Every structure is written in C-alpha cells, then in structure tokens.
Amino acid sequence: MRKLFSFFKYEYAVVLLAIVLILLLYLTQEMFVDIFWAVSILSLLGLISAFILPDVLLTWFVILVVIAGTFTMMAGIVYMPHLERGLLIFTIPLFSALGALIKGLGGVRESALSNKSNIISYTNHINSVTKLKNKNNAARFYERYISFIANNMDSKELTIAATCIHWAHSNQYRQLNSTEYKRILKEIADILKVHRLPDEVICYIDSGNFLIFSSKLEKELKETIDHKVKERLADIKYQDQGVKHDLQYKYAYQAINYKNVNDFSTFKDLTNNLKRQLETKIVVEYQ
Q: Where is the chain membrane-spanning (predicted)?
C-alpha cells in the first residue's frame, strides 16, 4: 500500500474515482438489463464502507460481499447476462478499494502537513546542529523571566543568572572546515547537557556563543560546575588535515535580580553586557 501511495496523489485518486464512476454508470446504460440504480447504490455503499470501516473490517466486508454476491448470482436463478452479474458482484469491492486509496492518501497528506508544521516549529525553536534552544527562544525565555522579577519586586530571592561560553575564533575554524566546526559545536553542546544542572536552560545564540540560564546558585556549587565544564571543554580538539588544535574559550557571567532588573530589561541589554565582558577579557588576554 505504501508503494501505491508513492505513485498517487490525493487529487489524482479523486479524479480516478470520478472517471471510474462515470464510465461504469455510462456502461450500465448500454447493457441489456437496466442496473443503473443498483450500481449507483452499490457504488455509494462501497465508498461509505471504505471511510467508516477500519482496514481489517473493510477487508472482511469485501470478501463476504464477493462470496455472497457470487453465490447469489451464479448459484441462484438470475435471468441476467454474465457481464451484468459481474458488475453487481464487483462494484462494492471496486469502490471500497478506491475509497480506501483516497482515505489513505488523505491520511498521508494530513500526516505530511502535520510533520511539516512540526519541523517548522522545531527549527524555529531549536538549532539544528547543537539541538539546543536558539536565540529567539532564549530571548523569549529571558524576557518572560525578567518580567516575572519586575512584577514581584518584593521577592528579593528571585534571580536569573546568565553564563555565556564563547568559543574563540570559531568563525575562522568554520571557514577552514565546516564539518569539523559543526562537530565541535555538537560536542560542546553535549558536554553542557551532561555537566550543567538539569534545571538550567542551555541555548545556542549565535556563532560560537552558548548561553546558560540558571536560578540562584550557591557560590561553591557554581564554582564546582564551572570548573568541571572547563575541564571537559579543554579536552576537545579541533582536527584538520591530521593536525589537532587546542581550543580557547571565553566566559562571561551576569546575575539579574530586583536590584538591577531595570538595567537588563531586554534580552539585547543582557547580550550587549555579556559581549562587552568577552571583549574586555580578550583585550586583557592579548596585552
């Protein structure tokens, strides 16, 4: 059945049904015995059964119809030519098959449209390489959290912390070998998924920049997690033409609570601050 679906489109199946029905009804007008209304009713019954019965029941229904029709037409006393008898026997199976084809193609189309919608929704929220939330999703999450803090200023414990991990010179590496570049991004993402806390939100916002949102962490716990992540990231090697290269990373951190929520009211405010921190650290590194 799947192979059949691959050769048919939904519209073609509907057109085929219409053509078969018209030809069959026209043929009944040319026959010795008038079976126009009988064929019309049997055609309708075949189509209805295809749409209301499950596939298994439909199969048994068609088998029983053929057996009963054959027995009635061939074994009984029926004053009718063999062609008319054959049409009456096989009208229901024929239109049941066409109806099942249309129903199946309709289901395939609906499934394809649903899958397409899911894919579009997925790509709008998830980076395809890292399988992490993308920049737009990060912005929505951050601004929703900031709005909650701003509306609950009495709760001084509400805090959201943003940690940015920047893979230095990532654009140059991407130009050298895009496949290896993607592998590195995926490996970084996998390390963060394993070694960051389960309730943290990890995002990939742009070229070589990973952003992690956390709730308020104890200083000792934060240092332990950061140290473990840095150790794992240091193990990643960029390989090109048989040569392994060590990678460099830069880190920026900003906590937002009731004291400074107005200074970081938008996602752009946050990312600009993190970017300035990264630039400062790069300048210090090269002095």
A: 12-29, 35-53, 60-80, 86-106
**Of 124, 158, 174, the domain-final residue:** 124
H-type alpha helices, the chain:
2-7, 10-29, 36-52, 55-70, 82-125, 135-150, 170-176, 178-195, 219-234, 267-286
Q: What is the pLDDT of residues 217-230, one digit of tens each?
A: 888 999 999 999 99
Q: How far apart are CA 143 and CA 154, in angstroms?
A: 19
Query: Stretch 51-77: mean pLDDT, rounded?
Result: 81
Measured CA to CA, the distance from residue 125 to residue 203 in angstroms comes to 10
CATH of the domain at 279: 3.30.70.270
Return the amino acid letter for 259. K
Answer yes or no: do 140 and 282 share one domain.
Answer: yes
- According to DSSP, the residues that pair with 262 across neighbouring strands are none
User: In angstroms, how far is CA 271 from the centroid of its own chain?
Assistant: 29
Amino acid at 287: Q
Tell me if 203 sits within 8 A of 210, measured CB to CB: yes
Q: Are residues 231 and 147 in the same domain?
A: yes
Token pair of 101 as six digits: 């084809």
What is d(CA 149, CA 143) in angstroms, rounded to the nearest whole number? 10
Please state the pTM of the whole predicted model: 0.59
Give pLDDT tens digits for 76-123: 666 677 778 778 888 888 888 888 888 777 765 555 545 555 444 545
CA atoms of 143 and 122, how far apart (whole Å): 21
